[in-house]
Amino acid sequence: QDLSISCRCVSGGANGELADWIKDSVIPGFEAAHDGVTVTLNEFAGGDEQLTQQLALDFSTGAGADIAGFDGFLIPNFVEAGLLKPIAELVGPEAMEWEGWSHISDGSKALMSYDGQPYGIAMGTDVRMIFARADLLESSGIDPASFQPTSWEELLEAARQVKQAHPDSFPLQLNAGVPMGEATTMQGYWMAILGTGESITDEEGRYIVESQGILDVLNLYKTIYVDEELGDARAQQLGDGRNRTFANFRDAKTAMLVEGDWFYRSVTAPGSEFEVAERDAKMTWAKMPAKEPGAGWNGQDFVTISGGTGWVMNPNTDAPQLAWELLAYMNSKEQLDAFQEFQPRIRIRDDVPVPTDAFLTETSSVLLPLTTARPNDPNYNAVSAEIQRMTEAVVSGSMTPEEAMARYKDAVTEIVGEDNTASLM
Amino acid sequence: MTDHLRQFLGRAGFAFFTALIGAIFALPLVWFLFAPFNSRAELGLAIPEPFSLSNFRQVLENSFAIRALGNSLIQSVGGTLLVALAATLASYALSRSPLPGKRAVTYVLLLFSSVVSGSAAMVPIFLMITRAGIIDTHLSVILVFAGGLLPTAMFILRDFIDGIPRSYEESAMVAGASPVQAFFDVALPVIRPGVVVVVVWAFVNIWGSFLIPFILLRSAEKMPASVAIYSFYSEAGTPIVTLLAAYALLYSLPVVLLYLFVSWKFGFRFFGGIKA
Amino acid sequence: MKRFSLLSPRAGAAFITPAGLLVGAFVIVPFFWVIYVSFTNRTLLGRTALNPEFVGLANYLELFSPHRFLDPGQFGFSLVLTIQFVLFSALLGQAALGMALAWLLQQVPKPVKAMTETVVIGAWILPEVVIGFAWFAFLDYDGGTLNGMLDAVGLPRGDWLLDYPFWVIVVFNTWRGTAFSMMLFNSAFASIPPSYFQAADVAGASSWQKFRDIGLPLIRGHVVTDLILITMWTFNVFTPFLLTKGGPGNQTEVLSIYTYRVAFRDFDFGKGAAVGVVVMLINLAFALFYLWVARKRTPGGAA
Amino acid sequence: MASVKFENVTKRFGGFTATEGLDFEVGDGEFVCLLGPSGCGKTTTLRMMAGLETPSEGKVWIGERDVTRVHPKDRGISMVFQDYALYPHMALADNIAYPLKVRGQPRPERHAEAQRVADVLQIGHLLDRMPAQISGGQQQRTSLARALVTPSDVYLFDEPLSNLDAKLRLDARGFLNHLQRDMGITAVYVTHDQAEAMALATRIAVMDRGRIVQYAPPLEIYRRPATTFVANFVGNPPMNLIEAEARIEGGQLHLQAPGLHLAPLPVPAALATRAPGRLTLGVRPEHLALAAPGAANRIEGRLFANENMGPETLVTVTRTEGEARLTARIFTDEAPRLSGAVAFGFEARHLHLFDAEGLRVPGDGE
Amino acid sequence: MASVKFENVTKRFGGFTATEGLDFEVGDGEFVCLLGPSGCGKTTTLRMMAGLETPSEGKVWIGERDVTRVHPKDRGISMVFQDYALYPHMALADNIAYPLKVRGQPRPERHAEAQRVADVLQIGHLLDRMPAQISGGQQQRTSLARALVTPSDVYLFDEPLSNLDAKLRLDARGFLNHLQRDMGITAVYVTHDQAEAMALATRIAVMDRGRIVQYAPPLEIYRRPATTFVANFVGNPPMNLIEAEARIEGGQLHLQAPGLHLAPLPVPAALATRAPGRLTLGVRPEHLALAAPGAANRIEGRLFANENMGPETLVTVTRTEGEARLTARIFTDEAPRLSGAVAFGFEARHLHLFDAEGLRVPGDGE
Ligand SMILES: Nc1ncnc2c1ncn2[C@@H]1O[C@H](COP(=O)(O)OP(=O)(O)OP(=O)(O)O)[C@@H](O)[C@H]1O
Ligand SMILES: Nc1ncnc2c1ncn2[C@@H]1O[C@H](COP(=O)(O)OP(=O)(O)OP(=O)(O)O)[C@@H](O)[C@H]1O
Ligand SMILES: [Mg+2]
Ligand SMILES: [Mg+2]
Q: Coiled-coil intervals in this record (chains D, E) (predicted)?
C-alpha cells in the first residue's frame, strides 16, 4: 500500500524544516508501524495560486497526494466546488473519536472547518504584533523596555519621534498594496480595521463596503505613507516590496513593523537573509493597539488575527482509513514533539509544549486570547484582492480615502452581490 | 587616402554602434556575474567581498533543486526533439504539397495555440493526461509541450522551407531517390539552419516554462528546475536572493551552452544560394 | 488534373501524422474547450466549478460593459494598455531594433558580430524567472546597476519601477525579445543573393539606401511572419509580471496579467477564456492588417 | 535505352499555356535537341519527360510504358538542371555520387565512379570542394557529372553547357557525342545555342511559343527552314530576310525589293496556282559574297560594319535608310577594304522563299 | 573615362590561389576582354576591379587613384553581373533607374533616362513589367541597361550575353560595339566565347590558371598565339597541334611527324642558335583544305568524322592509332564524300611553331 503526502516544502529550500520533519521523522515512524506501507513526500515548490490550481485539478480527478498541505482560508471555496469531503464522511464517524481532537482548541479546529465540519487538521497557528527595533527606539528617545502604544495616535507619535531623530528612516511598516498579496490584508488592513471595532464582514457575514472604520484605516495609511512619510511608500508598490520592508528592518531603517510570529521564527532568525544581528538585544515587540483604548474589535484594547495552514485529506483517496491514520499520526503528540526539534513554534495541540523559547511562549500566551480569524467564505479571496487595491490606491496617493472606498464598494458589490454587502454609514 | 579614411571611419562607426547596442544589452545581466558569489547578495550591484562559493554550496545541498536540473534536461531534450521532428516533417509536407489553403491552416493553428497557451486550457489538458494515465510522467510533459509549441514551430519552419528551391529535391528524385530519401538526404540538411532556430527556441521555451510541468507533475523526483527554483522563495513568497542568484546561474548554464554549441556547430543561417 | 508533387499523398500523410496527433490533442481539443467555457460561468473553485451554467455572451458583455470599461483593473484599460505595449515593445522595439541589428550585423567585423549576437540572444534564451530577477536588480533604486551608472556620469537616478512602470516593461520586453526578430531577419538577409547588394554597391548606394531599396522589400514576407509572431507573443507575454506584478496601481496590467488575475486570483475561468478568445481575434486583425500592408506595397503583385 | 513519345501534350500553368499539343517521338538512341527562344517551353517539356510536371492533357511514353503518372525515380532517367541544383551541403564527390548512393552502392565504389566521370569532365581535382567554392563553369560540369554517373534509359539535359568556354564545351560535347554514338544513349537536350544543336543532335525540335514548329535533322533545318521563325532563329548570324514584291510574268517569278537585283526565277509548284503577292526572300550570310556591281544576282547597300573575327569577316550593309540590314559572312582572314556602296552577290539556288504567313515555299525537288 | 591598372595582384581563397601576379593595364577608352577557360580567375579579376573582392597582394588603380581598398560605390564603375542581379521587386524602369535614384535624381528625369537606354536595347516597351515577367534575354538586357544608364569611368561586364540566343546576342554585341566606338567608354568584359571576344575587344587578355598568358589585340591573338595554350583555346575548333621532330639541315628546318609531309622551311632566327629538338607545329582548321595525295605540304590520316554543320564542314582524321587527331574546317554546304585515307593540304605561311615549353617561335618578320 502506498500513501503520499504533498506540501509546499522543500528540503534545503522553502519550509525545509517541514520537509525534513516528514522525511526524517513522520515517514520512518509510520512505516515502522505499518508493515508494507510506503509513504512518499512530494516536495512542492511554487506559488500559492499555482498550488491552488494544482490541488483543485487533483481533487477533481482523483489524482494527487492522499494528504495535502492546505491553506485554511481556501476550504470554503473547495467545499463549494465539491472538492473536499468532511473527515467524518470520508473516514467514518469513528474518526471524530480520535484522541487528538480533545487537545485542539475550537478556534484551531475552525481554521480547517467549514459549516462546523472539520476537513483537516491545522498545522499550527500564528499571531500578529508590532516588531520593534530597540536600538532605534532608544536612540530616538523612546524606552524600548516599556514601549507599548495604546492608540494609533501613540503609535504615530512614536514613529514621528523616530523620524525626527533619523530623517532617513521609515519608522513604521504597515503592509499595503497589491504586490504583497494576502500579507497586505492580514498584516496590514486586518490589524487596522480590527482596531476600529469593525471587521471585514458584519455579524451576518455581509461584507462591509462603506464605514467610518474603513475611512479611518485608509486615513491611517494616508498619514503614514502620504502625509507624513513615516513609512516606505515605494516598498508597498514594488514587486519585491515585502523584501524591502524586511531589509529596512534589518538595516535599522524601520523601527516598527507589523508582522506575524513567523517574522521572528523565520525571517530574522540567525542564518537567514534578513537576520538581525544580536537579535535578542535589538529586537522587541509590542501589541497592536486599537484606534483608541477599548475601541477595538470586541471592545478590546489590543487586536491581533490568526491564520493557519494545515492538512486535508484527498477526497478521492484510495485508502481513507490508512490516510486518516497517517494524518492522525502526524498530529500525534509524539510527532509534534519531534517537530519542535526541527522548528520550534506554537503547535496545534495544547499538550505539545512550546519549547523553551521566551518569545514564542510570551507572545502566544498574551496574544492568542485576543485573536480572531478570517471569515469562512468562498468570496473572501476576491474581496481580499480588492482590499489590497484599495490600500494601494491610497498609499500611492492616486486616490483619496473616500474615492478608494467608493471603488471598493463597487467592486465588492460586483463580486458578492448587493445582498451580501452592508453599509455602516 | 581620404577615401580610405572615410571608409575606415564608416566601418568603425558601424562596428562601434553595434558593439554599443551589444553592451547595452549586456548591462542587465552584469548583476548575475557578481551576486552568486556574494554571500550577502542584494539587488545592488556589488563586487563580491569576500568572493565566496558558499551560496553554491548551499544550493548543492538542496537535492531537490539539483535533481530538477536533470529533469529539466530530460523534458527539454525530449520535448525539443519531438517538436523538431514533428514540425520538420509536417511543415515539409505542407510546404511541398499542392494542398490549397495550407498557409491559412498553419496560421489558424498558430492562433489556436495562442489561446491555448493561456492558463484556462490547463484544465482540459490535465483531464486528458489523467485519462491517458500518464499524469506525473516525463512523457506527459514532453507531449503537452510538443503539442503546444508545434504550431509556432511549423509556422517558422514552413517559411524557411518555402524559400528553398524545389530543384534540390527534384534532382534527387530524378537521381532515383524516393521522396523520403530526398527529404533526408537533401532537404533536411539544407533546412537545418531553420530547424536549429526551432530547436533553440523550443528548448528555451521548455526549459523556462513553469506552468505545464507544475500542473502535470507531482513527484518531487520529476520536477524540473523551472519549478524547483521556487524552492528558493521563502514561505511568504519572497526570494532568497543569495541562493536564487546562485541557482539561477546553474539553471541558466545549459541553455547558454546549448546556444554556444549550436551556433558554433551549425550556425543560424541558410546556406544561401550557391550561384554567386 | 493532379499536379506532380514532391511528396506522395501517402508520404505526406505520414509526415503530417505525428504533428497532427499532437496538435489535435493538445491544441485543437483544448481550444474548443476554451471556446465552450467562454460561454459558461465555470470557475475553478466554488459552486460553479462542477456545475457551470451556460451564460451565452455574458462573459463577453461583461468584458465590454461600458460601465467603468476604461478604469484601471478593467478589461478595457488592459486592452488599451496592451495595444500600446505591443506597438511600442513589439513593433517599434523588437521588430525595428531587431531589423536594425540584423542589418548592422551584416557589415561589421566578425568578433563584434559574434559578441553582440551572443549577448542579444542571451537575453532571449535565459529562463524568464532568471531574467525577471536580473532586471529587478538592474533597476533597483538604491543599488541597481542602472542608477549606479547614472550616478557615475552625474545624471539623476530614477525610480524606474514606480515612476515609469509602463516604459520599464516596454524596454524590458524589447530587450527580451529582440533576439528572435534579429535571428529571423539575419537569416532572411543571408538568403538574398549577395549579387543584389553588390550590384547596389556598384551603383553607388549607401548602406541605408541598400536597406531601404533592396533588403527590406525583399524580406517583406519574413517581416510579416515576424510581426505576426511577435505581436502574438507580446499579447501573451507574462514576464512583466515578474517585474511589476501588474502594478503599481494596475499601470502595467497587460492582458496576460489581467487574465491571470481573473483566472487564478478570482478563479473565473469563463471570463478568462473569453479574454483569450478576444485576444485571438485581435491577433487575427493585426495579422490581416500586416498582410494587407505588405500586399498593398507590392507593385503589380508579382515577385 | 528507350524511346520517348509525347501524345498531344498540353501544359497549362493557371491560365497560361506553356506548351500546346506537343506530339513527337524521340527514337531509341536518338539525340534530340530542343531549340528555341527563351520562354518558349523547352524546360517545361523536359520536366514533363522527367515527371517533374504532370501534363494538363495528353500522355507521355517512355519505351513501351505510359509514364504520364509515373514518379520521376521510376522512369529510369537522368537529368541536368538549368540551375544545377547542386546540394550545397555535400562536397562535389558526394554530389556526383549521390545517384549511386541512392542505388545502394557502397562508398568506395561510388566514389571511384564519381572520380572517373569527374576526370573526364576535368573537375577531378575539385572533388573535395563544396559547391560554393567553385566557379560557375565548374558547377555546371559537376551537375553534368552527376547526371552521367549512372546508366539511364533517357538522359535529359537542360542547357548543360551554357556557361562553359568553347574548348570545354567542345570537350563536353565530344563526350556527349561519344556517349550517344558509341553507347547509343537516348538523350533530349535543351539549348538556345544552335551551333551546339547542329553539332550534337540527330534531330532538332525548334520550338516557338509552346509549339514545335519544325522537327527535323540539323541539316534539314539549316537548309530548309520550315518558317521564317526557324530561318531567323537557326544560323549565326541569322538568315537575311528580305520582304519582296512578287509577280509572275511570262512563267517566271519576278521579285522586287529595294537594292535587290535578281534574275527571274522559275515558278515553284506551290505558287503556280495562286497569286504570290508579298513574299519573303531568305539568304544566309555565308551565301553572300562581295560582287562586282553589275552581277546578275546582287543586293546593294551602304556599308554599316566590317568586322574581322579571325578566320571570317562579317560585312553588314543597310539597304534603306531604316532598319533593313543585311549581313554577309565572308571567309577570309583579312577584312576586305570597303567603304560606301557595297554589293553582295549570291546564287539563286541558295535562296529561300517564304509566303506571307512565313511558311516555306518549297523549291523544286523538295 | 579612365584607365585601370593591376599591379602584381594576387588573390587567394584560403590556400587556393585564384589569380597570381596580375600585372596589366586597360587603357583609357579600351575595350578589353578577359578570355579563358572556366575557373581561370576571370570573375575574380573583374570583382577585384569592382571592389567586391580585396586583393591578397598588389594594388589596383583606376585612373590616377589607388583604389585597392576603396568601396565599390566610390570607384566610379558600373557592372553587369553574371546572374543579372535584377531586383525582383522593382519594375524594369526602377531597376534600370536605380543607379540614378541613388544619385538623387528626381523621378521624372531618371525615368526619362531609363527609357532612353531601354529603347536603345529594345526593351523600352517592357518598362512596366517586373523581372519575373520577362524572358531571360530581356532580363539580361535590363541588367545591361542598368549598367549603362549612368556615365561611369569604367564598365565591367561578366559574361553579359552568355544566356542569349544567337540573334539577341548579335544585337547586343552591336550595341556594345557602338558604345565603345562612338562614346569611347572604357570596358572590361569577361567572356568564354572567343568569337564574342574577337568581335568586341580592342585587346584580349587570355587567362590560364590565374595568370595572363597573352594580352594583345584580337587578330594578333588569332594570328600569333603566344603559347600552345592560347593557340588551343582561341579558335573554334581550336588550332591543330602536331608534335614534330625538328632537324636543321642545310640551313633549312626539317620537320617530321607521322603523316606529315612538309617541304623544308627557312630557319626562324630564334632557332638559329640552338638545337630545336622537338617542336610543336600548329595549323588552324580553316587553313587546311582537302588536297590531292602528293601535294607538297600535306598531312595524311584516316577519316574519323565528317560533320556538316550548315555552312561549313568539319573533317577530322586520325594520324596515328592513338589520339593524334586533326580537324579541318571546310567552308562548303555539303560534306565532301570521303572515306579511308584523307589528305589535307596547307600553305607554309599558315604554320605556327612552338618550342618544347609551348612558347611561340617567332616567324620571320614578326
Ligand atoms: N510554374 C509556372 N507558373 C507559371 N508560368 C510558368 C511556370 N513555369 C514556367 N512558366 C512559363 O512557361 C513558359 C515556358 O517556360 P520554360 O521554363 O519552359 O521556358 P524555356 O523555354 O525553358 O526558357 P529559357 O530558355 O529561358 O529557360 C514561360 O513563359 C514561363 O514564364
Ligand atoms: N570562395 C571561393 N573559395 C574557394 N575557391 C574559390 C572561391 N571562389 C572562386 N574560387 C576558385 O577560384 C577559381 C577562379 O574562380 P572564378 O570564379 O574567378 O572563375 P571564372 O574564370 O570566372 O570561371 P567561370 O568561367 O567558370 O565563371 C576557381 O577555380 C574557383 O574554384
Ligand atoms: Mg529553361
Ligand atoms: Mg565566372
A: none
- What's the CATH class of domain D4-233? alpha beta
Q: Which amino acid is at A257?
A: L
Q: Pairing relation of β-strands A113-114 and D252-256? A: unpaired
- At the second CATH level, the architecture of D240-354 is Beta Barrel (2.40)
Residue at grid coordinates 523565520: A266
Mapping DSSP onto H, E and C, the string for B38-75 reads: ECCCCCCCCCCCCECCHHHHHHHHCHHHHHHHHHHHHH
Question: Do B133 and B92 fall within a single domain?
Answer: yes
* E228 and E222 Cβ atoms separated by less than 8 Å: no
DSSP state of E287: G
Identify residue B133 by its one-letter amino acid code.
G
Q: Give a yes or no: residue C51 inside a domain.
A: no
Burial of C232: CB neighbours in 10 Å, binned 0-12, 13-18, 19+ = buried
Of A259, A243, A249, A173, which Cα lies nearest the Cα of B242? A243
Considering the domain boundaries, does residue C245 fall inside one?
Answer: yes
Residue B245 has phi, psi (to 5 degrees) of: -60, -45
**Whether residue B93 is found in the same domain as residue B169:** yes
B129 and B237 belong to one structural domain: yes
Judge: A234–C159 Cβ closer than 8 Å, yes or no.
yes
Do you find a cis peptide bond into B165, omega within 30 degrees of 0? no
Cβ contact A–D (≥3 pairs, < 8 Å) = no
- Enumerate the residues of chain A whose CB falls inside 8 A of the CB of residue C243: 239
Contact residues on chain A for B235, CB-CB shorter than 8 A? 8, 14-15, 262, 266
Domain ranges of chain E: 4-233, 240-354
Of A49, A47, A48, A26, the residue nearest A38 (C-alpha): A26
Q: Note which residues in 119-138 of chain D have CB less than 8 A from chain B.
A: 131-132, 136
Q: Which of B167, B178, B185 is nearest residue D81 as measured by Cβ atoms?
A: B167
Name the grid cell of D344. 553582295
In a domain, C214, yes or no: yes
User: What residues have CB less than 8 Å from B101, skipping those under 6 apart?
Assistant: none
Which of D139, D196, D316 minimizes the C-alpha distance to E236?
D196
Mean pLDDT across E103-122: 89
How many CB atoms are located within 10 Å of the residue A400 CB?
16
Cell of A356: 523553551
Residues belonging to chain C: 303
Q: Is the CB of E16 under 6 A from ligand 2?
A: yes
| Separation between Cα atoms, residue E117 and residue C67, nearest integer Å | 67
The residue range of the domain holding C106 is 67-297
Residues B224 and B127 in one domain: yes
Three cell numbers at A335? 510527532
Distances (CA, A) of B7 to A226, C197, C200: 59, 17, 17
Q: Which domain holds residue B87?
A: 62-266
Neighbouring C-beta atoms of residue E113, cutoff 10 Å: 17
Rg, Å, chain B Cα set: 23
How many domains, in total, are found in chain C? 1
Least confident of A236-245, B194-203, E332-341: E332-341
Banded pLDDT at B118 (limits 50, 70, 90): low
Same domain, B77 and B189: yes
pLDDT tens figures, C241-274: 888 887 787 888 888 888 888 877 777 888 888 8
B9 part of a folded domain: yes
Q: What is the DSSP string of C134-179?
A: HHHHHH-TTT-HHHHHHHHTTPPP--HHHH-HHHHHHHHHHHHHHH
Question: Chains contacting E with at least 3 CB pairs below 8 Å?
Answer: B, C, D
pLDDT in tens, D113-149: 999 989 888 889 999 988 888 887 788 889 889 998 8
The reported pLDDT for the residue numbered D263 is 87
**In this structure, are B71 and B40 located in the same domain?**
no
E191 lines ligand 2 (CB under 6 A): no
Assign A19 to helix, strand or coil: helix
Residue A338 and residue E191: Cα distance in Å, rounded? Answer: 94
Checking ipTM against 0.85, whether it exceeds it is: no
pTM over 0.90: no
